[in-house]
Design goal:
Blueprint: E1 6-12, E2 18-24, E3 32-41, H1 44-51, E4 71-78, E5 90-93, E6 96-97, H2 103-106, E7 124-125, E8 137-141, E9 145-147, H3 154-173, E10 182-185, H4 189-200, E11 206-210, H5 213-221, E12 226-229, H6 235-241, E13 248-253, H7 260-267, E14 268-276, H8 288-294, E15 297-300, H9 308-317, E16 327-332, H10 336-345, E17 352-356
Parallel strand pairs: 10-11, 10-13, 11-12, 13-14, 14-15, 16-17
Antiparallel strand pairs: 1-2, 3-4, 3-8, 3-17, 4-5, 5-9, 6-7
Helix pairs in contact: 3-4, 3-9, 6-7
InterPro entries: ADH-like_C, ADH-like_N, ADH_Zn_CS, ER, GroES-like_sf, NAD(P)-bd_dom_sf, Zn_alcohol_dh
Domain Enoyl reductase (ER): 13-355
Keywords: Metal-binding, Oxidoreductase, Zinc
Length: 359
């Protein structure tokens, strides 16, 4: 494949500003793969990155950094040591590449690597600590890629990175989900995929809690046994009633809402587990004494670790994950500001907003 010398990429400007400009096509090292990006999607972390609140030091200089950590495309070139992929392969990427030298990475917890952000020691997170996929081309370490089955298109592939986060959360539980009662708080992309995955893993009953009826309706379509609109009903009572008043075995908190941790604790049975998945925009308070007195475990996960994207792709390839109703909008890369506006305002019931980078 003949490669151009330059490409169009979206770059951070001043806080709250993202624009496109021409940059050199990335050069790749021996263990890297150059991806020609077809689809990339926005998520709440990208909004935080655009505002520069994500960066403790204010972030890179304006016009130099390319965000984007959810993307899929085709292999355009491979490094000298790469024989796992070939030019033309369709792939989806995983954002996190651990340093693979610290105790956490060696134990498999590479999203919690002790050298986070230290590229000199091998760590990189696409679109967060190194340039990401809001560009025509991006360089990825070979270990972050999964080949796509013919039945999984690029839109679906990008959404599967989000499904990987849910699988990582189920991994953290360290137990079989079959037969467990589960409540999911927050019918965003993560929560809606959590409903599907919980059903695929045999959980019952599965309750989805939220405040947007249109998204709760999607949850019903995805297999939720019960949906609860927290604007109209007492969500804690409704969830506990689904288990005869005992509370559910597992609560997945996917909303990041200020009261959600307390709600999750009250929904959980004695000796149950709450897994925190959503990011909280500010510190929250919770009655941790209730957790202590009832033996409730609190766990948390970040991102799509434990090789979970590969497993999400496998499920989708088997026809066991549906993603099409989550993709609500498409924008060309040069309209990325409009894409962010649609996503942040939830205009026209926006859920997953896609950038059509190249066709």
């Amino acid at each position: 494949m003949s490669l151009p010398e330059t490409m169009t990429a979206a770059v951070l400007g001043e806080p709250g500003v993202i624009t496109t400009r021409t940059l050199p096509v990335p050069e790749i090292g021996p263990d890297e793969v150059l991806i020609r990006v077809h689809r990339a999607s926005l998520c709440c972390t990208d909004v935080k990155i655009r505002s520069r609140h994500f960066f403790a030091d204010g972030g890179p200089a304006p016009g130099t950094f390319v965000p984007g950590h959810e993307y899929a495309g085709t292999v355009a070139a491979v490094g000298s040591s790469v024989d796992e992929f070939a030019v033309g392969d369709r792939v989806v990427t995983e954002a996190h590449r651990g340093c693979m030298r610290c105790a956490n990475c060696l134990a498999g917890a590479y999203t919690d690597g002790l050298n986070y952000g230290n590229r000199r020691k091998g760590h990189r997170t696409q679109g967060m600590t190194v340039n990401g996929g809001f560009a025509e081309y991006v360089a990825n370490h070979v270990s972050t890629l999964t080949k796509l089955p013919d039945t999984v298109d690029f839109d679906a592939a990008v959404v599967l990175t989000t499904a990987g986060t849910v699988i990582h959360a189920f991994d953290a539980l360290g137990t079989i989900i079959a037969g467990a009662s589960i409540a999911v708080i927050g019918p965003g992309p993560i929560g809606l995929l959590a409903v599907q995955l919980a059903r695929q893993l045999g959980a019952h009953p599965v309750t989805l809690v939220g405040t947007r009826q249109s998204r709760l309706d999607i949850g019903t379509d995805f297999g939720a046994d019960q949906v609860v609109n927290a604007r109209d009903d007492d969500a804690i009572t409704a969830v506990r009633d689904s288990t005869g008043g005992l509370g559910v075995d597992i609560v997945l908190e996917c909303s990041g809402a200020p009261t959600a941790v307390d709600d999750a604790l009250r929904m959980t049975k004695r000796s149950g587990t709450v897994v925190l998945i959503g990011f909280f925009p500010q510190p929250v308070t919770a009655d941790l004494n209730h957790a202590v007195m009832n033996g409730i475990s609190l766990l948390s996960v970040r991102g799509e670790g434990s090789g979970s994207v590969r497993r999400a792709v496998s499920l989708a390839g088997q026809g066991r994950l549906r993603t099409e109703s989550l993709v609500t909008h498409h924008f060309p890369l040069d309209e990325i500001s409009d894409a962010f506006e649609t996503y942040t305002t939830r205009s026209d019931n926006a859920i997953k907003v896609m950038l059509d980078v190249v066709e």
